Description:
flat
Amino acid sequence: EQPAYTPAYLAQLLARIRSVPADYAALTASLPDADLAKQYRAGSFTVRQLVHHVADTHLMHLFRFKNALLTPGQPALMADVNGWAGLE
């Protein structure tokens, strides 16, 4: 069941969102380039791409949320995440 969105619960969620970048940085800081280039299956994102995908997705959801607040009724913003993953 969905918990109630109390101010305390929202504060917990926001604290978790704030901590995620540091958590990813700590998890990947000591990984050699070879590990960051690994794929979990053929044709999948690399570890490096997955980390960037999480960041891209979080930003995209923030932009979509802001867009929904500013322009209600407009189509949601979409992105080519596979294209983004292929960028340097």
